[in-house]
From TrEMBL:
Signal peptide: none annotated. It holds the Pfam family ABC_tran. This is Putative ABC transporter ATP-binding protein. GO terms for molecular function: ATP binding; ATP hydrolysis activity. The keyword ATP-binding applies. Residues 4-238 form the ABC transporter domain. It comes from bioreactor metagenome. InterPro entries: AAA+_ATPase, ABC_transporter-like_ATP-bd, P-loop_NTPase.
Length: 251
């Protein structure tokens, strides 16, 4: 089943910047898609369109027009892991992770024991369970990024959108997040993530979308798209795709 279809998506900001120009591709459920592109290429604009924060036409989610989704229904299908988030109040980690359960709560409803179990398990998945009663304001930058992933795991959406999911992480936590995301992907979750790390894209993605100045330079399997020529064209700087001990390495 198609999880996502983009049909000639364009977006111009009020000031007149055309951030996306006729971008089309589709994603099957269970695929993992890396969105690559230089600074200002339109990656965040695309994520904001998928989340309905920027309004646009031509986006279909599981066969239904994005514009026809209610807020909670959208939350059950799509979760975002931003790079960071500003906190207005000092919740505990567990309370914050429980926000991921919002799309499943009734009007004025409070989270159930089952919701709490799911949130605790999500904190365990990212290795933050021993911090669950600590205030979120006490976290380091990397822990903060792991918490945002935990909240989205608790949300149990069919698609996960991730904005630079490993940007603040040390090597051990980077590996942990890659392993969590691979596991989610194997269980059938559809992933779309932006990254400046072509090695991460190659390791985690099944497919790659390359955006250049708002245009789709190419879309296809990682084997088709991640080539020295394509990456050099995308970033306008020499990049090479090689192999060390049987593993693909981009440098
Ligand atoms: N709120 C806004 N108002 C006007 N122009 C914007 C706004 N947000 C982004 N832009 C412009 O739209 C274009 C695409 O920006 P976008 O943030 O989508 O790029 P990006 O690929 O996510 O970049 P980066 O890798 O630097 O995060 C850029 O030219 C940017 O300056």
């Amino acid at each position: 089943m198609k999880a996502l279809e983009l049909d000639r998506i364009s977006y111009t900001y009020p000031g007149g910047t055309k951030a996306l120009d006729s971008v089309s591709f589709s994603v099957e459920e269970g695929e993992s898609v890396a969105i690559l592109g230089s600074n200002g290429a339109g990656k965040s604009t695309l994520l904001d369109l998928l989340l309905g924060w920027n309004k646009g036409k031509g986006i279909t989610l599981f066969g239904k027009d994005l514009a026809d989704y209610g807020r909670k229904e959208l939350g059950r299908n799509l979760a975002l892991v931003p790079q960071s988030e500003h906190y207005n109040f000092s919740f505990t980690l567990l309370e914050y992770t429980l926000f991921g359960r919002s799309p499943y709560l009734s009007q004025m409803g409070t989270p159930t024991e089952k919701d709490a179990e799911i949130a605790v398990q999500a904190l365990k998945d990212v290795g933050l369970e021993s911090y669950q009663d600590r205030p979120i304001t006490s976290l380091s930058g990397g822990e903060h990024q792991l918490l945002l992933l935990a909240r989205s795991i608790a949300q149990q959406s069919r698609i996960l959108l991730l904005d630079e999911p490993t940007s603040a992480l040390d090597p051990a936590n980077r590996m942990r997040v890659i392993s969590i995301l691979k596991d989610l992907s194997q269980k059938g979750k559809t992933l779309l993530f932006t990254t400046h790390d072509a090695n991460l894209a190659y390791e985690l993605a099944t497919h790659v979308a390359m955006l250049k100045k708002g245009h789709l330079l190419c879309y296809g399997t990682k084997e088709e798209t991640v080539t020295s020529e394509m990456l050099t064209t995308l970033y306008e700087t020499p990049l090479y795709v090689g192999s060390i001990e049987g593993r693909t390495l981009i440098y």
